[in-house]
Design a protein that fits this description.
Elements lengths: L2 E7 L5 H13 L3 E6 L6 H9 L8 E7 L4 H7 L5 E6 L9 H8 L8 E2 L4 H16 L3 H20 L1
Parallel strand pairs: 1-2, 1-3, 3-4, 4-5
Helix pairs in contact: 1-5, 5-6
């Protein structure tokens, strides 16, 4: 399965949270590549990576970062692909990740970043949202997304 989604995070310490996105994508049969790059510590490597997304067949990017949380915006500045930002609660987070949420959501006009919830729920939702975006042109994936949602509902109803 070739990667259609790129998952990027600012630090190796973000991996446990961002695994939720990779897990959901794997459950839905969507290939993903995973990379660790920092908007601030590796700006040239980030620019080069983001510039090559189209060539590798990537269709959607999920970017997770805490604190200043500029990663999603930095990626969005270098590609016209949809970027989904996952705000993360860094060790020095303000308000449990409110700082990252605001940094991710407050993008300037013309460089959009779709922003999901802080932390693991947001990472999981980013995976689902990426699959839903891809499913607009992939009927088989759309059926898997619908089945995934039905399975969640059934789990709730079973208690």
């Amino acid at each position: 399965m070739s990667a259609r989604v790129a998952i990027v995070m600012g630090s190796a310490s973000d991996r446990p949270t961002m695994e939720a996105a990779a897990t959901v994508l794997e459950e839905l049969g969507v290939g993903a590549e995973v990379k660790i790059l920092s908007a601030h510590r590796t700006p040239e490597a980030l620019r080069e990576w983001a510039g090559g997304l189209d060539e590798r067949g990537i269709k959607v990017v999920i970017a997770g970062a805490g604190g200043a949380a500029h990663l999603a915006g930095a990626v969005a500045a270098h590609t016209t692909l949809p970027v989904i930002g996952v705000p993360l609660a860094a060790p020095n987070a303000i308000g449990g990740g409110l700082d990252a949420l605001l940094s991710t959501a407050q993008m300037p006009r013309g460089i959009p970043v779709a922003t999901v919830a802080v932390g693991e729920p947001g990472a999981a939702n980013a995976g689902i949202l990426a699959a839903q975006i891809l499913a607009t042109s992939d009927p088989e994936l759309a059926a898997r997304v619908r089945a995934h949602r039905t399975a969640m509902a059934d789990k709730v109803l079973r208690g």
